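testing teh design pipeline on a random one, pls ignore if ur not involved
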């Protein structure tokens, strides 16, 4: 059974001034993040403004990455939306391209459905995709979705679909919940909230991190992952990535990272976000780079 491990970037989605996905920036950023050391990309996560994108945009943009020479075996796109037929469509498309996995939100909005309803949703999704190549990452982000993927549900799905339900992304930020999932579903690769919990997670059976700030700090996060796995002293490196993360997180992850990229690249298209978000500003990017100091020297280089 394939269990993903390592550092995974839910990549940002750049937009043209008219709102279309900026194909050239999309491809160049994806390649840069991989070149910096990320093990995998996860297009169309929360950081990628996925739920502000249409199904056709998501499928086309994924194809652009493959056409640009990025191996689908290094991609785990988000495919979860509220309507089961659309989640099936996105998931089938990703699996058909050869993607390593798909990251799937629970069906949100109907918040009273509970574990039984979500178990039905995921079970029917797996049945309708009907492809043994499907590898699923359950995506728990209740502060956004309003619906949890509980430890009990994770254990239930892992037992029912051991070759398919292989990972869990915990974006709630609660280590106690992460630990509960690790205990409840030992055959599932669990990814804690961010690189701020990377070393603690690896010491307690977690698999790595799927984190927004891998977009900007992939090399340092990968180095920390490798050094932790090797049993080296990582206290200084761990403190540095936590400091980097705090600066970006406190400023609002998506606009903050886009602002930094706009300043460093000189391409103002990075300032564009999709509604309902407001656009980023150059002023914010400059202030963030000042705050980050030498920790950001690598951004926009190479």
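output:
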């Amino acid at each position: 059974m394939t269990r993903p491990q390592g550092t995974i970037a839910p990549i940002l989605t750049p937009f043209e001034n008219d709102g279309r996905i900026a194909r050239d920036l999309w491809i160049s950023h994806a390649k840069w993040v991989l070149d910096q050391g990320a093990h995998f990309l996860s297009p169309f996560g929360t950081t990628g403004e996925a739920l502000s994108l249409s199904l056709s945009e998501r499928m086309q943009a994924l194809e652009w990455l493959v056409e640009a020479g990025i191996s689908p075996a290094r991609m785990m796109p988000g495919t979860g939306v509220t309507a089961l037929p659309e989640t099936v469509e996105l998931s089938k498309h990703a699996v058909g391209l050869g993607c390593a996995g798909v990251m799937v939100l629970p069906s949100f909005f109907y918040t009273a459905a509970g574990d039984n309803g979500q178990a039905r949703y995921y079970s029917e999704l797996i049945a309708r995709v009907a492809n043994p190549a499907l590898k699923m990452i359950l995506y728990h982000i209740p502060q956004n979705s309003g619906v949890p993927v509980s430890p009990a549900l994770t254990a239930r799905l892992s037992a029912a679909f051991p070759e398919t339900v292989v990972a869990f992304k915990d974006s709630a930020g609660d280590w106690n919940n992460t630990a509960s999932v690790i205990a409840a579903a030992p055959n599932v690769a669990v990814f804690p909230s961010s690189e701020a919990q990377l070393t603690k997670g690896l010491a307690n059976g977690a698999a790595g991190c799927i984190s927004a700030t891998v977009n900007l700090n992939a090399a340092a996060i990968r180095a920390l992952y490798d050094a932790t796995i090797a049993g080296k002293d990582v206290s200084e490196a761990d403190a540095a990535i936590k400091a980097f993360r705090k600066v970006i997180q406190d400023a609002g992850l998506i606009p903050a990272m886009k602002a930094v990229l706009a300043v460093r690249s000189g391409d103002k298209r990075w300032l564009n976000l999709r509604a309902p978000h407001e656009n980023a500003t150059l002023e914010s990017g400059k202030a963030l780079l000042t705050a980050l100091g030498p920790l950001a020297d690598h951004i926009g280089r190479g």
